[in-house]
Amino acid sequence: MGYKAKFRVYRGDGEQGGLENYEVDVNEGEVVLDIIHRLQATQTPDLAVRWNCKAGKCGSCSAEVNGKPRLLCMTRMSTFEENETITVTPMRTFPVIRDLVTNVSFNYTKARQIPAFAPPADIKAGDYRMQQLDVERSQEFRKCIECFLCQNTCHVVRDHEENKEAFSGPRFFIRAAELDMHPLDARTDRKSFAQAEQGLGMCNITKCCTDVCPEHIKITDNAIIPMKERVVDTKYDPVVFIGKILRRKPRETGKI
Amino acid sequence: MTQIERHSFDVVVMGAGGAGLRAAIEARMMGKSVAIITKSLLGKAHTVMAEGGAAAAMGNVNSNDNWQVHFRDTMRGGKFLNNYRMAELHAKESPDRIWELETYGALFDRTKDGKISQRNFGGHEYPRLAHVGDRTGLELIRTMQQKIISLQQDDEREFGDGEKFIKVFAECSIQEIFTKDGAVTGCMGYFRETGDFIAFDTAAIVLATGGIGKAYRVTSNSWEYTGDGHALAMRAGGSLVNMEFLQFHPTGMVWPPSVKGILVTESVRGDGGVLKNSEGKRFMFDYVPDVFRKQYAETEEEADRWYTDADNNRRPPELLPRDEVARAINSEVKAGRGTPNGGVYLDIASRLPAEQILKRLPSMYHQFKELADVDITKEPMEVGPTCHYVMGGVETIPDTCASPYVQGLFAAGEVGGGMHGSNRLGGNSLSDLLVFGRRAGLGAAEYLDSRGGAAVAIDEADLQAAIDAALAPLNATDGETPYTIHHDLQAVMGDLVGIIRNADEVKDAIVKLDALKARAKNVSVAGDRVFNPGWHLALDLTNLLLISESVAKAALIREESRGGHTRDDFPTMDPKWRQVNLICKSDGTAVEVTQQPVPTIPTELLSLFDRAELKKYMTEEELTALPEEKN
């Protein structure tokens, strides 16, 4: 059942490069990453691609297949017609290092800017008690494999280099939401921090991030929208408002 | 002398999986500056692939559990070849290491009373694995990655420099460790991205580089698992212990071919999944070995009752240790009772309601749906053995994880040896890397304190020689491509030093490995140094070849079958061989194997077992210190 597929793959660095055409064997059950590896082994030994687990768990092999942000290891060849030309390009939002490999350090920089989990001062290790129902909301966001496809597809930064400074992107909105919803996180300013320091307000909830998430995390509905609704909550919900006054914790500045 | 980027750190941690990150955290907490070096991006290490959980006798689900029971299970799983002190430390310290992760922000699944939930797993007497669905490894990695950020934020606040004490060097591959007078002076490597070289002057190196699975074609391991730490340790004068023991995980995917070997978590069986052959028979009942007869159910009815009433029923044989299950599957397939794609069936669909499967095994559902177009809530999976874990590894002193031969060299996690004996229990790897990752970081810090602050520096001639060696494949022309040599190496190891071995085949492998070594000397790669995968593979091949030679030579010497080493010409376990560790050393060109006695298990630990059970593993002389059996 093998056949020869037509591939167009970006070759080059950040300065110059272009699409090159290849014909390459395809066998039953293969994914796009297999084909890229076959190219490496048989035609282009220096074709650069980032990958690790080849099982959709590490989020290393992110790229764009026919313009769509995808994990190469989870894109099956059977989803394409045999006569179709398959175009593989690097993620567009990040600078190209070489071929399909991009510089994703933007994401690691943003990660360092979010205040870490603040353990409750009065609970010793071993004494943490949480209900499954209460941890599940955060657990959804902790499924994130950091493939950065959501960051790549987000139009706030996709073609707007100038927004990168102020905008931490969907991956880090779910990080903020995860900490906000953590039953024992001692900080109370996660939402205001997301608004003030992470550029949450620049998101206009077009759900592109949710669409590309290989873990099917409902980034927009379950993280971004609840984080945005905060101001409404505290102002207009009398129960929440009174509760906050009764259990008031010291405010933090939102800076780290 | 080539000008290269040069750094000086108190401790260099090689590898950013669970063990490396935990070591870095500990060394930093002890006030040391730490470089974390990873071949991948941070957070992508192989630990993310660990699915089932981390074993720790917290007793949250069954209060009968305690460290002694965990210790017993670990020793049984390893067929008593484990380093007893490591198994003891591991069993005692795992609960604290898990609880500590909660203070870093980890969110494990919970019991009804709000504690960390624990699941059943092969070889563990009680539900013991702390878990998050079937993505526990990801939770560990992310939690420690975030703890490191937290420490860097502290340093930013206090010193105005977040990287003053912990700096991560991503996509960086270490090529050589340097020593002087038997003590570490530094290491060198290159950035994968640019091909630029980098050197670290340091007195303490923690190896946390994981395993060697890429010596095999069918493996659950990623490209990173090329035995770098194992090979570097040997080249620096260190030793490896019991490299013949490889764990073939019983359940890897067998179809489609391109994903053959990818792991199917043991949790499928822990949560009720059963193995069936092509005749629909639940065959594991036919494969319970004598040493485990007492602990495992003999009928399907009893086995099924165990899931709801573990106190009054014995365990299903699907939950035997991994070596037993892998061999059983191998035998069924060889006997012609396999599936069309050469595996057996793993059935969870008929055992649990669909919504339970989606809840407990979400990433397995996802993996089969996306990669094989199989809906595991409706159909059985096809599975077969896959090279998963190396029990053998760098020989260390248990309490400090220090090499007995090279001062300043430490090892933790899969690259370390001894803890798991001849076979590792599922779930003991994530706890291992926490317990010994911490101890390695601590060991490195204490070593630095003991030697005072004397500066170390790499010998310049050594550094230049290492650079020249690394550039050789790029400078060579008309040589062979590394891809074909790697392919041939995997064939030799898979065919001749695989799950079932014999003397003739292993001897043949040793001859063939020699020929491959010769070919690897003449390797050449096209292109330049910028993110050049051909060059990276050429350099990794050197390590893989040295490690493969260690596995093959040790496998030839050990004339018995035990755990992850099965010889069909010596099919039984031999108590005499239980007293022997095989130690590999190398000058960098060839591997020498010597025999060394296994440390004697102290009486207070031995007396945790019935004498009758110990008699299955040990000689009568070894048991004289124990009281006679009471009848």
From TrEMBL, chain A:
Give the record's pathway. Answer: Carbohydrate metabolism; tricarboxylic acid cycle
2Fe-2S ferredoxin-type domain location: 5-92
GO biological process: what's one of them? tricarboxylic acid cycle
List, separated by semicolons, the cofactors it needs: [4Fe-4S] cluster; [3Fe-4S] cluster; [2Fe-2S] cluster
Write the signal peptide boundaries. none
Provide this UniProt record's keywords sorted from A to Z. 2Fe-2S, 4Fe-4S, Iron, Iron-sulfur, Metal-binding, Oxidoreductase
Q: Which InterPro entries match?
A: 2Fe-2S_ferredoxin-like_sf, 2Fe-2S_ferredoxin-type, 2Fe2S_fd_BS, 4Fe4S_Fe-S-bd, Beta-grasp_dom_sf, Helical_ferredxn, SDH/FRD_Iron-Sulfur, Succ_DH/fum_Rdtase_Fe-S
Gene Ontology CC, one term? plasma membrane
Q: Which GO terms describe its molecular function?
A: 2 iron, 2 sulfur cluster binding; 4 iron, 4 sulfur cluster binding; electron transfer activity; metal ion binding; oxidoreductase activity
- PROSITE patterns, A to Z: 2FE2S_FER_1 (PS00197), 2FE2S_FER_2 (PS51085)
The record ties this protein, via Pfam families, to: Fer2_3, Fer4_8
Similarity field: Belongs to the succinate dehydrogenase/fumarate reductase iron-sulfur protein family.
In its UniProt entry, what is this protein called? Unannotated protein
Q: Tell me which species this is from.
A: freshwater metagenome
